[in-house]
């Protein structure tokens, strides 16, 4: 059997990649994908602990399946929100939005100002 430390190093690496992507990317779709990568690392951890602690008990595997179902619903919700935001602002950059108590996404600056800043800084 593979030692537990090796089984936990892979999810640690995957979670780190997802965290770096969530913190460094500016496009909302890439941020959502990074969250999915992080949650997939959690699923791998659950399966590893389930196989290591009690090989005959399927509770960890069932919990991992439920989390995968939640991941699917999160992807669908994120794509729906991204589609709605793109219809309103023609951009999916994270810097255009902020979280507030009354709204899911609120426009911070106009799209024109953001496009001018992008052109000035040379970013795409």
Automatic annotation (TrEMBL):
Q: Tell me if Secreted is a UniProt keyword of this record.
A: no
Q: Which InterPro entries match?
A: NADH_UbQ_OxRdtase_chain4L/K, NUOK/Mnh_C1-like
Its topology with respect to the membrane? Multi-pass membrane protein
Record keywords: Cell membrane, Membrane, NAD, Quinone, Translocase, Transmembrane, Transmembrane helix, Transport
Q: Cite the EC number.
A: 7.1.1.-
Q: Where in the cell is it found?
A: Cell membrane; Membrane
Q: Which chain regions cross the lipid bilayer?
A: 30-53, 65-86
Give the protein name, as stated in the record: NADH-quinone oxidoreductase subunit K
Broadest EC class? Answer: translocase
A GO MF annotation of the entry reads: quinone binding
State the Pfam families in the record.
Answer: Oxidored_q2 (PF00420)
GO CC entries? NADH dehydrogenase complex; plasma membrane
Q: Name one GO biological process term.
A: ATP synthesis coupled electron transport
Name of the gene encoding the protein in the UniProt record: nuoK
The record describes the protein's role as:
NDH-1 shuttles electrons from NADH, via FMN and iron-sulfur (Fe-S) centers, to quinones in the respiratory chain. The immediate electron acceptor for the enzyme in this species is believed to be a menaquinone. Couples the redox reaction to proton translocation (for every two electrons transferred, four hydrogen ions are translocated across the cytoplasmic membrane), and thus conserves the redox energy in a proton gradient.
Relate the assembly described in the record: NDH-1 is composed of 14 different subunits. Subunits NuoA, H, J, K, L, M, N constitute the membrane sector of the complex.
Assigned protein family? Belongs to the complex I subunit 4L family.
Does this UniProt record's set of keywords contain Lyase?
no
* Catalytic activity field: a quinone + NADH + 5 H(+)(in) = a quinol + NAD(+) + 4 H(+)(out)
């Amino acid at each position: 059997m593979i030692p537990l430390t090796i089984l936990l190093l892979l999810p640690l690496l995957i979670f780190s990649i997802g965290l770096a992507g969530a913190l460094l990317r500016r496009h909302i779709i890439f941020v959502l994908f990074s969250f999915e990568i992080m949650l997939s690392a959690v699923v791998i951890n659950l399966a590893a602990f389930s196989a290591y602690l009690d090989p005959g008990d399927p509770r960890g595997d069932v919990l991992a399946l439920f989390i995968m179902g939640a991941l699917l619903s999160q992807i669908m919700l994120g794509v729906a929100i991204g589609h709605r935001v793109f219809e309103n602002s023609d951009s999916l950059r994270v810097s255009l939005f902020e979280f507030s108590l009354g709204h899911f996404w609120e426009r911070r600056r106009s799209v024109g100002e953001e496009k001018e800043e992008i052109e000035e800084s040379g970013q795409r």
